[in-house]
Amino acid sequence: xxxxxxxxxxxxxLSLRNAGLTYAEIGRRLGVTGERxxxxxxxxxxxxxxxxxxxADMLLSTGQAxxxxxxxxNTVRRWSNEGILKAYRVGPxxxxxxxxxxxxxxxxxxxxxxxN
Length: 116
Description:
50% of the residues lie in helices and 9% in strands. By secondary structure, it is mainly α.
């Protein structure tokens, strides 16, 4: 399928729609979904902006944090539970994510001491 400019594509979609075709039928002809046809008719763009995080704001998994700190993943989890390392819970499973700046702060302060 050859990409067309958005204006000419929208005109094509509108003409097919005016001819009585359904969103799904138009979508099959153009190789997109019926939902995308509805969006084209509504004039909605598919352009999505990605927020670029700075290095300090980058979120790391517990495995990545453990690798940077040279400790076991369970140690990172324990430090998170104890409040030594601030972690954020994301997703339906509640996975932990740690900001890179938190890792840098911990490295500057020094590691917590382990009681005997």
